[in-house]
Write a structure and sequence with these properties.
The protein is mainly β and about 220 residues long. The chain is built from 1 helix and 10 strands, in the order αββββββββββ. Strands 1, 2, 3, 4, 5, 6, 7, 8, 9 and 10 form a 10-stranded antiparallel β-sheet that branches. The protein is elongated, with a radius of gyration of 26 Å. About 5% of the residues have low confidence.
Length: about 220
């Protein structure tokens, strides 16, 4: 009986050691944060870039889990403004040629999901890969307003004339650096490369190509 009790105690001790080791391996830190980014948006149509790049922005909240093995798992809820510009030459009634720009804007609610790795302690570098499901909430089309003499006197904004799909899916690559200001608060800067996996409009088979420079803060829970 004493021998059996001794074996049981050893088994329990081994289980406690294993549980403690497992906790250390899989222990996690949880973070919430806010980020804002300036983006440069190009559009490809049938494999070729069209129009000119448009400057836009992204902003929203972040959620992140980091394990003791420096594995990063994150999700974001962002408002994204995307779009592109189309330039063309117009001939007015005095045969004057003018360069006219039409602005196409798409507004998305996106939910980036990503996984990555970081290295370093006080100051660290990180990289993430992921997917970005995005839901189109509004699309507009802006073009010049002219008077009777064809002078440009303002701009007109209307609902987008192109057929914009309600859902877009893109792949992302993030790389950047972070700095722990305190045990709880960190500041980060990152570059995101984002490419649509499908066309966001069946007109001209257009897809987004986005580069964003982000600045963000996060708080350890």
């Amino acid at each position: 009986m004493n021998k059996l009790n001794y074996m049981n105690k050893k088994i329990i001790l081994l289980l406690l050691i294993f549980a403690s080791s497992s906790y250390k391996i899989y222990a996690q830190n949880y973070y919430v944060g806010y980020k804002y980014g300036l983006s440069w948006n190009d559009v490809k149509s049938n494999g070729d870039l069209i129009g000119t790049s448009q400057n836009n922005f992204s902003t929203g909240v972040t959620f992140e889990v980091i394990t003791n093995k420096k594995l990063r798992i994150g999700a974001e809820i962002l408002y994204e403004k995307r779009g592109f510009n189309l330039n063309y030459t117009a001939i007015f009634n005095n045969f004057e040629e003018r360069l006219i720009t039409n602005y196409h804007h798409q507004h998305y609610l996106s939910i980036p999901l990503k996984i990555g790795y970081q290295a370093g302690k006080k100051m660290y570098a990180f990289g993430d890969l992921g997917l970005v499901p995005a839901f189109n909430v509004r699309s507009t089309f802006k073009y010049p307003k002219t008077d009777e003499s064809f002078n440009i006197v303002g701009e007109i904004t209307e609902k987008e004339q192109l057929e914009i799909k309600p859902f877009d899916l893109s792949a992302l690559l993030d790389f950047g650096v972070g700095y722990n200001l305190t045990d709880k608060i960190s500041i980060l800067s990152a570059i995101r490369l984002q490419r649509s996996l499908f066309e966001f409009s069946e007109d001209y088979q257009m897809s987004h190509r986005i580069t964003t420079l982000f600045l963000s803060f996060k708080y350890k829970l």
